[in-house]
Design goal:
The two termini are 36 Å apart. The protein is built from 17 helices and twelve strands. The chain has three domains: 82 residues, no CATH class; 251 residues, TIM Barrel (Alpha-Beta Barrel); 63 residues, no CATH class. With 472 residues, the chain is of the alpha/beta class. Strands 1-2-3-4-5-6-7-8-9 form a nine-stranded mixed beta sheet. A three-stranded antiparallel beta sheet has the order 10-11-12, covered by helices on one side. Helices cover 35% and strands 14% of the residues. Bound molecules: pyridoxal-5'-phosphate (PLP) and iron/sulfur cluster. The site of pyridoxal-5'-phosphate (PLP) has 7 residues, from strand 2.
């Protein structure tokens, strides 16, 4: 009713249109080009600005094999690649940072070329992949390595069955890059000095057990094929998993999760065997009326280039749908401008923004975490800036295995202690799940309280008691 009324009054306000050459009346001022900067994608041979890649031509750079072969896998190799671009002080800072990282190092030449080496301290991609000793902050005292309790909810190693109708299948434990903020640092990547990982190798036997479990659970309709990263599955493995899942009558949809599109989009353009395997599974699924899609992980607009667009154009032509799950990170995308730009650029290249996660409690990443309050503030600006289906839902993946909760749905939130309390009635009835804002968002006094074991327990108990009263 009100929509019709609005239309009628809007029409009444416009001049009557004559024979077609009357000027259009613009109710909104025309936008300037700056407001469309999300469409200006980095193009040309941008990688040649890195001395080590100055003679690398486009065909070579676009080769996924070349990207793999030239991945940076140690702090020493990294330093050797960028030494001419950065100060000695910065090099020392990176070395100190890696000394504290629970993740193995792996960065693609593509990502390395997207870092602004004239200002690496502030660069959003550098922040995600290269920890700096000077920027690290002590972990929150409530942090544990598997904060999402994925192992606790795993009936078979690498298969997490938390939600009623969907499972998370960690098919392997390697990725095209290693993100220092990885939630799965308990399993993903090689062992580091600080952490001995849980083994999730891609073995036939483990897969067999996981697939048998899924087959024996008729309530499961949805499988997340993750890892590690589906980019590292061979074409025959993509087909094998795809066909097994498609053959199960109760499976209605599954996703291949990969960071690949964000860190090595050229694979879609040049690894034809891999893309053909994915396409085949998606096509088979479509004929069986089952949805097979890709879920990916862009965090900043700078990760989306002309190469990404070419990859996405090809996926679009093949009818492969892509959704994005971002992590909301301090100094990366925690401002209105950065998040709006990311969401609009994703939309421009046909990636559908699905989730923005409030940063999980992961070891060594306190400097990347934001408060829930920051998420709430930025979400207000993001919602309304583009299509609703391209607007991510901001979620907290409740520590302790509560699963993803709408960030706004807390039963209790005290920005002073930084504790937000969530319930998850469909996942774990009658439990309370706490998320803890980063210490840096709290006052001196509260930060001291967190270090005191007695006061810490008191704060958590108070928050839960408060939530209990509210949630009735
Ligand atoms: C995220 C996740 C899923 C998938 O959840 P959606 O909300 O459907 O994206 C499934 N299982 C586990 C354990 C997860 O963490
Ligand atoms: S690509 Fe994903 S699974 Fe791999 S390290 Fe990064 S966040 Fe973790």
């Amino acid at each position: 009713m009100s929509t019709t009324a609005n239309l009628v009054s809007a029409r009444a306000a416009l001049p009557v249109v004559g024979e077609g050459d009357e000027p259009i009346v613009h109710l909104k001022p025309k936008v300037d080009d700056a407001s469309l900067s999300h469409r200006q994608l980095k193009s040309g041979a941008f990688w040649q600005a890195i001395p080590a890649y100055k003679d690398v031509d486009e065909a070579t750079f676009l080769s996924h094999l070349w990207q793999e072969k030239n991945a940076i896998t140690s702090p020493e190799k990294l330093v050797a690649t960028v030494r001419e671009l950065v100060s000695t002080e910065f090099v020392r800072d990176v070395e100190a940072g890696f000394g504290h990282a629970p993740m193995a190092v792996r960065i693609s030449p593509y990502l390395l070329s997207l870092i602004d080496w004239s200002n690496p301290l502030k660069d959003p991609i550098r922040r995600q992949f290269l920890p700096l000793g000077s920027q690290l902050e002590p972990d929150h005292p409530m942090l544990t390595l598997d904060s999402l309790h994925e192992q606790g909810d795993a009936p078979v190693p690498g298969l997490t069955h938390r939600y009623p109708d969907k499972v998370l299948f960690l098919v392997l434990d390697t990725c095209p890059v290693y993100c220092r903020f990885c939630t799965r640092s308990y399993a993903v990547g090689l062992d580091t000095d600080l952490v001995e990982k849980v083994s999730l190798k891609a073995t036939d036997e483990r897969w067999e057990r996981a697939l048998r479990y899924i087959a024996e659970r008729p309530e499961v309709e949805d499988v997340v094929v993750s890892g590690g990263d589906s980019y590292r599955l061979r074409a025959d493995q993509i087909r094998a998993i795809g066909e097994r899942l498609l053959a199960m009558p109760h499976i209605r949809r599954f996703r291949f999760a990969t960071k690949g599109l964000a860190v090595q989009p050229m694979k879609v353009l040049t690894d034809t065997v891999w893309l053909d395997a994915v396409t085949e599974v998606v096509d088979k699924g479509r004929k069986l009326h089952k949805e097979v899609v890709i879920h990916t992980h862009f965090n900043h607009a700078n990760e989306i280039t002309e190469i990404t667009k070419r990859a996405m154009d090809l996926l679009m032509e093949r009818g492969i749908y892509v959704r994005n799950q971002s992590v909301f990170q301090r100094g990366v995308n925690d401002t209105d401008e950065a998040m709006v730009q990311l969401v609009r650029r994703l939309g421009w290249v046909n990636v559908h923004a699905y989730y923005a996660y409030i940063h999980d409690l992961v070891k060594g990443t306190e400097d990347l975490r934001t408060s829930v309050a920051t998420g709430i503030r930025v979400e207000k600006r993001v919602r309304g800036s583009t299509a609703g289906f391209n607007t991510p839902m901001f979620v907290v993946d409740a520590p302790g295995g509560g699963g993803k909760r709408d960030m706004h749905s807390y039963e209790h939130y005290d920005t002073e202690t930084g504790i937000s309390v969530y319930t998850a009635p469909s996942v774990k009835k009658d439990q309370f799940f706490c998320y803890y804002d980063p210490l840096s968002s709290l006052s001196e006094k509260i930060r001291r309280d967190w270090l005191d074991e007695h006061k810490r327990t008191q704060m958590v108990n108070d928050a839960i008691a408060n939530a209990r009263v509210r949630s009735i």
